[in-house]
Amino acid sequence: MSNAPIPTPHNGAGANDFAKTVLMPGDPLRAKYIADTYLENPKQVNAVRNMFGYTGTYKGKEISVMGSGMGIPSIGIYSYELFHFYDVDNIIRIGSAGGLQDHLKLMDVVVAMGACTNSNYAAQYGLPGTFAPIADYGLMSRAIEAAKAQGTNVVVGNVLSSDVFYNADSSVNDRWKSMGVLAVEMEAAALYMNAAKAGKNALCLLTISDHIYSGEELSAEERQLGFGKMMEIALELA
């Protein structure tokens, strides 16, 4: 536990308000939905900047859920504070992603074994090379087993954490696709780097909400409420 002041400028929770495992959807309203739908006796522990956070129990085990916001800078702040200031051990990102590979369909669940990135986030560590952000194997293997028990097929592999949503380079997705990258999202690489530096554990689970090449996409309401399989896999990791 850090000696940094709690609450922080971004988190109004007290020192013991978060469970050891935190689920992090990007959308704070999705965090509220998970708390209201799945958690027993949920307590709101953060509302600073409307980045809602809750702690409750799931099948008798304490677990928290909090929004991360969009993009690497946002999840970089929130996950850093949870790991370093609130003594959280495990963060599971549960988010949406755009499919790149042809075999991926809407609502498929992707387990991000690794996270490529076009971000400069790793520059802060001064490494003499390129860092490869990867998931914690223990969390990943448990998630895959939970999916099997649930009867949900998951796709495991590499994703791209991009700093750019509207990219001026119209051919960039083709190049990532050619390297076998499954899907594109905007947060996992920073989460994995923060976990590695802190000696903690992280995993990213994604539901395909749109496909870059087919043009299919879910509605905003479907994105917020329709990711039940992914949410239930993540909840089993408490």
TrEMBL record:
<comment type="subunit">
    <text>Homohexamer; trimer of homodimers.</text>
</comment>
<dbReference type="GO" id="GO:0042278">
    <property type="term" value="P:purine nucleoside metabolic process"/>
</dbReference>
<dbReference type="InterPro" id="IPR018016">
    <property type="entry name" value="Nucleoside_phosphorylase_CS"/>
</dbReference>
<dbReference type="Pfam" id="PF01048">
    <property type="entry name" value="PNP_UDP_1"/>
</dbReference>
<feature type="site" description="Important for catalytic activity">
    <location>
        <position position="223"/>
    </location>
</feature>
<dbReference type="GO" id="GO:0004731">
    <property type="term" value="F:purine-nucleoside phosphorylase activity"/>
</dbReference>
<feature type="binding site" description="in other chain">
    <location>
        <position position="26"/>
    </location>
    <ligand>
        <name>phosphate</name>
    </ligand>
</feature>
<comment type="similarity">
    <text>Belongs to the PNP/UDP phosphorylase family.</text>
</comment>
<dbReference type="InterPro" id="IPR004402">
    <property type="entry name" value="DeoD-type"/>
</dbReference>
<feature type="binding site" description="in other chain">
    <location>
        <position position="30"/>
    </location>
    <ligand>
        <name>phosphate</name>
    </ligand>
</feature>
<dbReference type="GO" id="GO:0006218">
    <property type="term" value="P:uridine catabolic process"/>
</dbReference>
<comment type="function">
    <text>Catalyzes the reversible phosphorolytic breakdown of the N-glycosidic bond in the beta-(deoxy)ribonucleoside molecules, with the formation of the corresponding free purine bases and pentose-1-phosphate.</text>
</comment>
<feature type="binding site">
    <location>
        <position position="10"/>
    </location>
    <ligand>
        <name>a purine D-ribonucleoside</name>
    </ligand>
</feature>
<protein>
    <recommendedName>
        <fullName>Purine nucleoside phosphorylase DeoD-type</fullName>
        <ecNumber>2.4.2.1</ecNumber>
    </recommendedName>
</protein>
<dbReference type="InterPro" id="IPR035994">
    <property type="entry name" value="Nucleoside_phosphorylase_sf"/>
</dbReference>
<feature type="binding site">
    <location>
        <position position="49"/>
    </location>
    <ligand>
        <name>phosphate</name>
    </ligand>
</feature>
<feature type="binding site" description="in other chain">
    <location>
        <begin position="93"/>
        <end position="96"/>
    </location>
    <ligand>
        <name>phosphate</name>
    </ligand>
</feature>
<feature type="active site" description="Proton donor">
    <location>
        <position position="210"/>
    </location>
</feature>
<feature type="binding site" description="in other chain">
    <location>
        <begin position="209"/>
        <end position="210"/>
    </location>
    <ligand>
        <name>a purine D-ribonucleoside</name>
    </ligand>
</feature>
<keyword id="KW-0328">Glycosyltransferase</keyword>
<keyword id="KW-0808">Transferase</keyword>
<feature type="binding site" description="in other chain">
    <location>
        <begin position="185"/>
        <end position="187"/>
    </location>
    <ligand>
        <name>a purine D-ribonucleoside</name>
    </ligand>
</feature>
<feature type="domain" description="Nucleoside phosphorylase">
    <location>
        <begin position="21"/>
        <end position="223"/>
    </location>
</feature>
<dbReference type="GO" id="GO:0005829">
    <property type="term" value="C:cytosol"/>
</dbReference>
<dbReference type="GO" id="GO:0004850">
    <property type="term" value="F:uridine phosphorylase activity"/>
</dbReference>
<dbReference type="InterPro" id="IPR000845">
    <property type="entry name" value="Nucleoside_phosphorylase_d"/>
</dbReference>
